[in-house]
Amino acid sequence: MKGNYRKLIKTLLDNDDWTTASSLASTLNVSERSIKTYIAEINGNENGLIASSRKGYLIDREKAKNLSDESGGNLPRTVKERVNYIITNILTKDALGNRKTDLYQLAEEIFVSVETIKKDMVKVKKKLREFDLYIAAANSYVTIEGSELDKRKILSNILYEEFNKNVMSFEVIETVFPGYDLKLLQSIITEQCKQYHYYINEYALLNLVLDIIIGIDRIKKERTFGQSRIEGKRFGIREQELARDIAAKIEENFHISYSPAEQEELTIILLSHLMKMDFAALNNENIKAIVGEDCLQIIDAVRSLLKSTYFIDADNQDFIAKFTLHIKNLLVRLENGYTTKNPLLDHIKNTCPLIFECAVEVANKIREITNYDLKEDEMAYIALHIGSNLENQKSKRKIISCIILFPQYYDFSNIMTEKLKQRFGERIEIKTVVTSLEQISETEKVDLLISTIPVAETIQREWVRITPFVNDRDFENIEDKIQKISLRKKREKLKQQLMQISNPKFFYKNVDFKNKEEAIRFMTDVMEKEGYVTGSFYSEIFHRENQASTAFEHIAVPHSMEMNAKKTGMFVLLNEKKPIEWDHHSVSIVFLFAINRIERAIFHDVYDNLIVLLLEKNNAAQVTGCNNYIDFIEAVVGCFH
Questions:
Q1: Domain tally for the chain?
Q2: Per residue in 290-320, pLDDT tens?
Q3: Summary mean pLDDT of the chain
Q4: Which residues form the domain of 15?
Q5: pLDDT at position 71, please?
Q6: Bridge partners, 142 (sequence order)
Q7: Is there a contact between 610 and 591 (Cβ–Cβ < 8 Å)?
Q8: 263 and 323: one domain?
Q9: What is the CATH number of the domain that holds 137?
Q10: Whether residue 335 sits in one domain with residue 288
Q11: What does the pLDDT average to over 236-243?
């Protein structure tokens, strides 16, 4: 595309309203006739891209998004996309021959003004600081300065963000590194691991291949480590042999040469992702030799936390084995500044908020012991491990109690009972079998009566009639009743819990706050005044906020991990007219929890239910329309379907 066409499109994109031909002519320093010619030719190639009227010209931004720059890549349109594009562009040019990047040329490439680029550079610098990198500028020319390792880490971070728009796969990685045989690289890794009896899961393999291919690409572009970054680093003999063999295969097939420092870094990357053995072979006799004393101390502390705070059975041997090996690998990553990205992060946070909250507390415990901060991606992996245990225990609490009414006839009632147990397993508990209604006490607490004979409609309990033979239709009718009863019990329990922790003094709507800090200060002050918390509550909340954001799309659930409130309470803030900026989210619903440790189970239940229910936009709209806390509770309970 010609330079003037680029400038014209860039100018139109910079303006939200119609732009006159004379204004465009002045900006491009050409005649108005030339402007009309340019637009006609642009629309000839991109039909309908630029609209014209008496007011001037207006560009179709949706069509403009589909335009490609001269190199054939998609144009970045959002601030975040431009920040990532700018960083990768600068690093790519640096790797190709120590060339600086011209911001004016960069602005032309992506059809934005230099002023826009300069504004973006503020965010570029902020992101670079997270990786201990900085911008060096000379007039309009810039470079990224810092260690080669940190440059590779930020490239990995940005590329993973880009991949996350799609389903992460080897095919997606190949679109960024088209000149490399990733299947061959994958084969080299997996074959050598088998030979040395190491193991790697699919998610870890994707992360590993991405990190290794970035290293290969940088070495090819003569951007390598000058010296070892960790003096005196020691690896086991088998570990070194594995890394050397993988390095040799890579050198042979990808035509590069690993320096001693690059070899060491490859070893670190490999050991951050690989496991020494199958978890099934881990036992009390060999565990210490495999993972080390430090790792076992962390596991013991985490198991104690899971038991005392979340009532999770952490003595399950399968859980201990898998989780211990995961923590061992995690420690290697933490010691060497690596993070394994998790494509399930957002899904886990939004669909399993309590499990993720549990993982946040585990991460905090690990930080207390090791002084290493964990990223949310790592927390999501921890959530995967502890989630199954938590869900198994939750399922055991969802039992429906039943009484079977079956007039005595040989042992048919026993046969029917066995059929029901086989079909519904632990979901139902058959309290007893009776032969007449008179045998059932009116005060006996039972969820469901299963009867083979007619029952009066006036009976004050849920019941279902089935045949003595229990056919498929009977199973379906029982299932319908189980679902109905489960839903009713959930509603009743949640309503009781919300009534227990709610207070009309803790319900506010559409209060104008500049930021989340101001909102949290307001809520904590009210709760302190009412005697629910102490003066340290505000800082305790931000200790939790610093671990991982408590924002879930349009919902925020700030709370302290200390669980030392004088009373358990929930502050409700509904701000649909004045959403609060909260860690890159626009939040219209805020629940601030003060938690007394004795009542932590209530917090767990309410926390999990509120987030899952109100992440659905229709449910959120119903709740934000409430004007008092009683209506709010009824609306939340009504969201159960």
A1: 6
A2: 788 899 999 999 999 998 888 787 887 878 8
A3: 88
A4: 3-65
A5: 38
A6: 101, 137
A7: yes
A8: no
A9: 1.10.10
A10: yes
A11: 88
**Helix or strand (DSSP H, E) at 586:** strand 585-587
Q: Residue 285 maps to which CATH number?
A: 1.10.1790.10
Bridge partners of 591, per DSSP, are 572
Phi-psi region of 61 (alpha: psi -120 to 50; beta: other; left: phi over 0): alpha
pLDDT in tens, 356-397: 999 999 999 999 999 999 999 999 999 988 876 665 555 555
418 and 350 inside one domain: no
DSSP line for 607-638: HHHHHHHHTSHHHHHHHHT--SHHHHHHHHHH
pLDDT number for residue 206: 87
CB-based burial label for 112 (10 Å; 0-12, 13-18, 19+): buried
Q: Where do we find the tokens 């007893």? A: 432
> Is residue 267 domain-shared with residue 329, that is, in the same domain?
no
DSSP class of residue 135 equals E
Amino acid symbol at 313: D
Tokens of 522: 């307001």
Rounded Cα distance between 130 and 635, Å, is 42
Packing angle of the helix pair 202-220, 182-196 (nearest 10 deg): 120
Q: Can you tell me the mean pLDDT for 517-541?
A: 97
**Token match 């934000």: residue?**
624
Task: Give CB contacts under 8 A, 24+ apart, made by 250-258.
Answer: 250/185, 250/188, 250/212, 250/216, 253/181, 253/184, 253/188, 254/180, 254/185, 254/216, 256/216, 256/219, 256/220, 257/219, 258/219
Q: Where are the beta strands (DSSP E) in 60-157?
A: 101-102, 134-138, 141-145
